[in-house]
């Protein structure tokens, strides 16, 4: 059985766990935070962004957004709510395009919000615009199952 690597949603430390179909408990080795409490991680530095997307072994779902963007603000609670539905199945990160322009340029972000899905550091899908909760959840489910 292989391991998974996931970033802690509380302290951003990388954690290696045995891959299982179901987890009753998963605790960060650094901060002791609950890894099953999946929530979006804000990533403002490019180095931190690279560390997470290149190390995490589950699909990474990235929300490229900005504070001044109305649709981004409307989508933010949906992104966070859906993240909670996929503990240890996907890593959800938020990239503020004003603070992390290098990451936005790397993925050719031209409009926001743009949601990008990565698997093994490679883009496998993207969605543009603020999705409703059902559509976004179905989109993530398709990514996780692929």
UniProtKB/TrEMBL annotation:
<feature type="domain" description="Thioredoxin">
    <location>
        <begin position="11"/>
        <end position="145"/>
    </location>
</feature>
<keyword id="KW-0560">Oxidoreductase</keyword>
<comment type="similarity">
    <text>Belongs to the thioredoxin family.</text>
</comment>
<dbReference type="GO" id="GO:0005737">
    <property type="term" value="C:cytoplasm"/>
</dbReference>
<dbReference type="Pfam" id="PF00085">
    <property type="entry name" value="Thioredoxin"/>
</dbReference>
<dbReference type="InterPro" id="IPR005746">
    <property type="entry name" value="Thioredoxin"/>
</dbReference>
<protein>
    <recommendedName>
        <fullName>Thioredoxin</fullName>
    </recommendedName>
</protein>
<dbReference type="GO" id="GO:0015035">
    <property type="term" value="F:protein-disulfide reductase activity"/>
</dbReference>
<dbReference type="InterPro" id="IPR036249">
    <property type="entry name" value="Thioredoxin-like_sf"/>
</dbReference>
<keyword id="KW-1015">Disulfide bond</keyword>
<dbReference type="InterPro" id="IPR013766">
    <property type="entry name" value="Thioredoxin_domain"/>
</dbReference>
<keyword id="KW-0249">Electron transport</keyword>
<keyword id="KW-0676">Redox-active center</keyword>
<keyword id="KW-0813">Transport</keyword>
<dbReference type="InterPro" id="IPR017937">
    <property type="entry name" value="Thioredoxin_CS"/>
</dbReference>
